[in-house]
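## tool: complex_structure
## caller: assistant
## args:
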Amino acid sequence: MNRPLSSQNSPEIVEALQMLQAGVPGTSDLLVELLREPLSNDVTRFLSPDHPDIEDVIQETLVATLNYLSRDVEFHGDLVRLAVTIARNRCRDLMRRNQRWAQIRIEPLADWLENPQKTILEDIEESERYSILQEALEKLSPECHKLLKFTYLEEMNTEDIRQSMGLQSRQGVYYRKAGCLRRLKKLFHNLMDKRSIHVTRGARSNRERGADRG
Amino acid sequence: MADLNQYECIDPQVGGDLWRLDDPSTEPATAERLRLHCQFCAACRLILALDTEIKTGVRTGRVSIPHSTPHRPTGFLWLSGLGAAAMAAGLTTIAVLPPSASHTMMPTRAPIPTSTIERPVSNEVVPGDRPLVTWTPLPGARAYEVSIRSVEGDYSWQGQTEETKLKLSREAALPAHQRYRLAVTPIPAHLAPEGGLRSTFTTGTRFQAAMYRLTHGSRMALATGIAGCLALVTGLIGLVWVRQR
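## result:
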């Protein structure tokens, strides 16, 4: 994974990254300055200009980006893309959360934003989580069903799976499995969002009915 | 344009190697870097979480992995098969049934004779140099006199037969790529219908004869053949597309 520094980075960012890797003090402030504008533009566009959580998302993204850079000494990618993608994923979490829990704040947003290790799975009740997972699994291709069955149900070793699937190498088994999980992730997302909309609409219509009665 | 719902990988060049986490032969440094990536990348973290969820779900019986047979593109197979069958049926019909006569639309004072010569039909292109001549029987005729003359050359042949078909002998083989007039006269001659039994034809290659049959064959058979050909091509393209996908 020894790669050249992405050509997408501007000369200022390339210089700042080199300074960071060299341990020059004050580089973090410079990177924050360079990243703030593109982040602000993207988050504002993604949420809406008057969204109350824009600044929190930007701050949390800047902290996460710097934290990532300080730990990944081999970073060679596109820094703006990295930061913007972290921010967008947080925006997605925020939007999904607002849609799902529009009425109830389970924990303060700041606390929730500070805990980026969580996955969206933790926001869903176990029974619903497995129900969505089952539905997503049903939509996978027969080849993925076969591979996942060999892996999880029959717990076959990689060499046996390779032979049964007619693959050239063991790496092929891992690569295919990752592909199936990637597809599953996409299906899971879609199904979860559909259910969120359903729940929200249902809740809204119940509230409206209640208001009519009241 | 970013997908509003789906998480994106924050560094796809690293995230693309996520499968290496499963591979025991992956170098520890690479594995460590991938784990670090997952701490910050919601998309890759979700993939790992789903992996764990399936494992747990299968063990506890909360989820089951569906049993399905590999998808066969049945629709495209049927389309190709039916297309091939229709094309074969159309071509066979064109090959077996006699072609229709090609009439010039020149105005004429005399009535168009009702020809009872079955083959070659008027203006047909026949393959080879010894075409089979057939005609419908005339009641009362003892024999028939057949004469073939080239329109522009000097070929001329005349013979008699008691049957209603005649195959030219080798000696009487027709020169290629010429146009001929064919006349069949019953014996006694007074039995001949008004205008006589007459036809014209041209000798040509097998390809020219096949083309004549294609253009003058049964319209229905031709339409069936073309539709079949289109269905076959569509079906085959569909099969290739499904395979690639």
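## assistant note: Residues 19 and 25 of chain A are 8 Å apart (CA to CA). Chain A has two domains: 11-113, 124-213. Handing back to user.
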